[in-house]
Amino acid sequence: AISVFSQGGAGRRVSIDEMKALVTPELIAVELSVKQAEATKQQLDDDASPLFGVDINGSYAMGSRSMAASFTIPSNGTIAILRGESGIGKSTLLKTIAMLNTGFTPSSNSTMSLIGRDRESFHPTKWRKQVLYMPQNGASKLQGTPKSFLDFIASSHHIKHTSKASVLESLTTRTTQYMEEWNVASPLSKLSRPWMQLSGGESQRILLAIAMSTEPTVLLLDEPTGALDLQAKLAVERSLKAIAENGCAIVLVTHDEEQMNRLGTMWLSL
């Protein structure tokens, strides 16, 4: 038996046969447990095809800490909430999934997949474009302006038969559209302003708008609205729901319980 969780509902113990009878479109999620040193996964077998899969275990912090995670995200507009106490390794897990250097040493049987393709079939750079990580307070680490950052992204995202100029134009258009939806005043002017001259809320929304404008397949977000007031959060959340419904899988770290309940369709506990 496992605990079945739906949005706004409490968990209860059910048998496997009863669980199968309960599977309806309203069923939101299965509680997954992702613990240091071991992973316990129980997941409903529904009709949605898997978009993204993670099954990793290994060590980090020079071998002093262990971590394992096993979950699958279906291609049905999932927003997975990654929960856990501060310092337990949520950011490390997100960065590991994005193939960023965290000092994590995976075991030989660790695997990740995206749209049916094993991670090993992707060049690391292409994987990071599709599985995009936005760190907490990421804008504070950037130099220059949002405009120069967009230019850098356009340089790395343009492909054969597509000019950098056209990619930059598309990225800028999508970014400013999000900024307007989120009530960021004078979007084009703000893109030309140095990051350090933007407020915390402005820089957070602009960086998220840029990340979303690249249209990744999976978006890994670490406290993306921590500097925003409620109205700004709600505006951003509407956009996150929209891109999830259009096929982008989102894994979100937030300590805002109300935001978890508003956005979450799957819960991962670390």
TrEMBL record:
It comes from the Eukaryota. The keyword Nucleotide-binding applies. GO terms for molecular function: ATP binding; ATP hydrolysis activity. Pfam families: ABC_tran. Gene3D superfamilies: P-loop containing nucleotide triphosphate hydrolases. Keywords: ATP-binding, Nucleotide-binding. Signal peptide: none annotated. Residues 51-270 form the ABC transporter domain. SUPFAM superfamilies: P-loop containing nucleoside triphosphate hydrolases. This is ABC transporter domain-containing protein. The lineage of its organism: Eukaryota, Sar, Stramenopiles, Ochrophyta, Bacillariophyta.
